[in-house]
Amino acid sequence: MAQTHQELPANSDPLQRILDNIHEFGLDQNLIELETRGYTTIPKVLSENQIRQAKDAIIARAEQTTKNTVDIDSETGEGYEGLTYLPYLLYDNEIFEEILLEPKPLALITYLLGESCLLSSLGCHFKGPGGAALPLHSDNGNGIPAPFLSVSQVANVNYALTPYSQEAGALALVPGSHKLARQPRPEEMMLGGESGNPHAEVMDLSPGDAVVWHGNTWHGSFARQIPGIRMNLAVYFNRQYIQTQERHGDSVPTEVLARHANNERFKVLLGGKQPYGWQKGGPDFTVMARNPRGLYD
User: Fold this and answer.
1) pTM of the full predicted structure?
2) What is the chain's alpha carbon radius of gyration, rounded to the nearest angstrom?
3) Shortest CA distance to 85 belongs to which of 241, 220, 209, 234?
4) Under CATH, to which class is 14-288 assigned?
5) What is d(CA 118, CA 102) in angstroms, rounded to the nearest whole number?
6) Residues 232, 218, 105, 126: what is their CA dihedral angle, to the nearest 10 degrees?
7) Of 62, 96, 131, 160, which is the most exposed, with the fewest CB atoms less than 10 Å away?
8) Residue among 150, 211, 204 nearest 177 (CA)
């Protein structure tokens, strides 16, 4: 049985344990794609019920935030034009806790970032017709200097909740760009039209599919050209020594921790073993004693 918790046998080989986990999930080809192309697609990760619950929760947040009614199929751009980012969704609905722990994408994220990696942010790129394309970029833009390390420092899982196509405002990625170890130059950033990067690949996805990519990989998204809303769930991770985009740690609601009391990995993802950030009282040595030993990090 694939191992998804943090309780690990003391004598296990860390890398082999991670590779075995990937093999048990049938992700060997995905791992090859991740190494060679910088990204990979895992089809049908989410069930129809998970997709529906996630969409309902995101629509509720969008309507609460903007005071505009959401029409997923017929939005013209009057209520929602272009891209609106909806952040910090994890605590809006239990479905997002469930998706965070989806074992197949998490197995590949663990390979990229280690068993002590953190959830950096969980939000939705909510896209109506119009607006501009999101230029190609690497997620290493948060202060990581070039040349980038070949070892991923951050990584992303993008879940399609509505159909993806170029005219629907799909995600785009540039295969092999993770090996360039830099951000794209201005002439390499554009999507669409005659000036668009010719190497960018459109991610034609069905709802429930997940794309996982290395933090160095160039990606962006096209402007939506047809009525309706494109919805995703972007689950962004980083290594344990990098500042997360969202605040979790001591901000995690008690009831959320109670639901996952027996899942050490969930607590680790939300900063439960981070030893730093102390004040006048000094460090908590019981937390510092839990620093990685025998883990794949």
Assistant:
1) 0.93
2) 19
3) 234
4) mainly beta
5) 15
6) -10
7) 131
8) 150
Strands 171-173 and 201-202: antiparallel
User: In this structure, are residues 48 and 35 in contact, taking their beta carbons and an 8 Å threshold?
Assistant: no
- Return d(Cα 193, Cα 55) in angstroms, integer: 31
CA 212 to chain centre: 7
Which tens digits make up the pLDDT trace of 230-284? 999 999 999 998 999 999 998 999 999 999 999 999 999 999 888 888 889 888 8
CA dist 276 and 293 (Å) reads: 17
Q: List pLDDT tens digits, range 68-110.
A: 999 999 999 999 999 999 999 999 999 999 999 999 999 999 9
Quote the DSSP letter at residue 12.
S
Q: Is 132 exposed, middle or buried (0-12, 13-18, 19+ CB in 10 A)?
A: exposed
| Token pair of 22 as six digits | 């990937």
> Which residue type occupies 250?
D
Contact 177, 184 (CB under 8 A): yes
Cβ 153 vs Cβ 237: under 8 Å = no
pLDDT greater than 60 at residue 292: no
Measured CA to CA in angstroms, residue 33 lies from 105, 125, 159, 192 at distances of: 14, 25, 18, 25
The yes-or-no verdict on residue 3 having pLDDT over 80 is no
**Residue 287 pLDDT exceeds 80:** no
Give the Cα separation of 220 and 212 in Å (integer).
Answer: 14
CA 230/CA 165 separation, integer angstroms? 10
Measured CA angle at 218 (ends 230, 31), to 5 deg = 90
